[in-house]
Amino acid sequence: METKKFQIVNAQSNIDWTGRKVTGAHNGTIGIKDGTLIFTDGKLSGGNFVIDTTSIKILDVADPATNAQFAGHLASDDFFSIDKYPEATLQITSVSANHVQGDLTIKGITHPVAFDITINASNGDTVTASGKLVIDRTKYGIKFRSGNFFKDLGDTLIYNDFDLDVTITAKAA
């Protein structure tokens, strides 16, 4: 068995996020700080990555003042508490074909997640991987305007699930 470790290239890796509410959606990006992918006999077998929660950006709000206010709210304890938790992590625990299971930690709270992944090997030294995670924010203590915890929110309700579309480029270590 040959095991090969690939280091994530931060500048060529990204996460696009989408959060939805009754009246529409918001989207943006968040950076990957560090991580590795491990391949055994040419197949993904493990890995982890660190998400830089301080890098969260909102792309769909053009007004600078509104954007800054929204970013501040996402950074607050209502959402990601980035002063206290500047990082989130994903640890891959198992891989079966293109199905990945792992432990996602946000705000110091860890829950299992599962998602499908697509892997492309451009050559023996570089791989790209992409996948979409659908996360229930309330499992991580993010309850702001959740219909599970607050009544009569009307059109201010924010849906519990948010999407993370992850694209990673990694080079052989």
From TrEMBL:
Protein name: Polyisoprenoid-binding protein YceI
SUPFAM superfamilies recorded: YceI-like (SSF101874)
Domain Lipid/polyisoprenoid-binding YceI-like: 5-171
Lineage: Bacteria, Pseudomonadati, Bacteroidota, Chitinophagia, Chitinophagales
Native source species: Chitinophaga ginsengisoli
Leader sequence residues: none
Record InterPro entries: Lipid/polyisoprenoid-bd_YceI, TTHA0802/YceI-like_sf
